Amino acid sequence: MSGAASIITESQKFCVSLTVSQPHEADQEPTLCDEAPVNKQHSAMTFVGCSQSLNEECCDDQQCPPYGVMSVLGRRREMEDAVAVCPALVSLPCYAVGGCKCDCPHAPGIKCSLHFFGVYDGHGGSQAALFCKDRLHVALVEELKAVSYFDSFPPESVNDWELQWEKIMLSCFRKVDSEVGGGVCIGEDCDRCAGNGSCAEPIAPETVGSTAIVAVVSSFQIIVANCGDSRAVLSRGGKVIALSADHKPDREDEMARVEAAGGRVIFWDGYRILGVLAMSRAIGDRYLKPSVIADPEVKCVQRAEDDEFLILATDGLWDVLSNEAACDVTRKCIAGRCNHNSIDGLPPTRRGRGSDDSPASAAATLLTKLALARGSKDNISVVVVDLKGKQK
Fold first, then answer.
1. What contacts 286, CB < 8 A, 6 or more positions away?
2. Are 161 and 170 in contact (CB under 8 A)?
3. What are the CA-CA distances from residue 315 to residues 53, 109, 212, 218 (Å)?
4. Nearest CA-CA partner of 136 in 162, 170, 182
5. CA separation for the pair 22, 20 (Å, rounded)
6. 2-245+298-386, superfamily in CATH?
7. For 338-382, what is each residue's pLDDT tens digit?
8. pLDDT tens-digit profile of 209-263?
C-alpha cells in the first residue's frame, strides 16, 4: 500500500479512518470523510477541501442521508473487502445531475451536494480493494475537475448530463485500474508522487483485483457505477429496483465480449474467465486482460418521493440473500420494527455520523448477521442509505 499512501490530494484532507475495537483483527475500517463547511463564493463546481464553495445553495436539504456500514471477515481467512463513505464529496450545479427540486433548476449558480458511497470486494489479495477505498472517490473528483463541460455547461448540453456522467465514470475507473497496474509518471509535475516515480509501481500483483460498486447520491438523482459482481438495490414504494447487473462470465453479452477479445469462458466450479475468475469485469487482474475489463456500467435514476433506502453490498450478502429478502429485512429496520437484541454478537457498526442504534445501522448489521446465519462463506460488506431519514 505504499503507492496508495503516496497519493494524497487536496480533496482527501477531510478523509479520516475511525478506530473502534474489533473482535476480528482482519476486519478493514471503512474510509469515512467528514462533511466540509459550506461557504458562499463564485465557483462552477465546488470540491471538498477547496477554498471555493457555493455561490448559492440549492433550496433542498444538502445533508447526507443517514447511513449504516458493516464490513466483517466472515468465514474467510483474509479480509479483502473495503468500504468508503464521503458525505458532501463535491458540489455541482443542479442541472449537472439532471435538475433539482428548486423552481428554477437551470438557474446559474444553484448547486447541490453529492454524497459518495463505495463498496469494493477484492480477490487474490486486499491490495486493489484497499487502494480503491482510498483512491476512487478522489479520482472521481479529479475527472470532474478535468471536464470543462461542468465549468461552462452550455444550456444546449443540459440533456447530455447522463452521457457525461458515463464518460466521467469510465475515465475514473480506467484511471484507477491503470494505477493499480502501475501508471505512467509524468515526472516533476506529477501530483500523485511529487515526481519521485513511485506512482509508476504496481499497487497490486497481476493476479489481484477488486469489484467496485459506487453510488453518487444527490437530493434529485442517484448515479450508480458498477464493475464486477457487487450490487446496488433501491427500494421504492415497497418495490425492489436493481440499480446494477452482475458482471458474470455466463451473462450472454459478457460472454460474447470476452470471446471477441480472444478469451474463453470455462465451466470450472462455475463459469469463469479462463477457468479462473468468476466475474467478467474488475479493477486489476492484469493477467486476464483484455478479457477482464474495468469499464463500469452506469445507471442514473431520478429520486422519487417514495424512495425508501439504498443497499450497496458485496456478494458475501447477495450469494445467500435475494434482492427482495434484503429489502424486506431493511424495510422493517427502517420502520423501527427491528429488534436490536437480535444484532448482538457482531462487530460494532462503523458509521460517519449519527447514533449506532439508528435504523440504517441496525439494518446493515442485521443483514450481515442474516448472511452469516445462512452460511455465507465470504467477507460481507453492507452499506444501507436511509433516503427518507434525516441526520440528527
1. 181, 202, 206
2. no
3. 38, 41, 11, 26
4. 170
5. 6
6. PPM-type phosphatase domain (3.60.40.10)
7. 765 555 555 544 433 334 668 999 999 999 999 999 999 999 999
8. 999 999 999 988 999 999 999 999 999 999 999 999 999 999 999 999 999 999 9
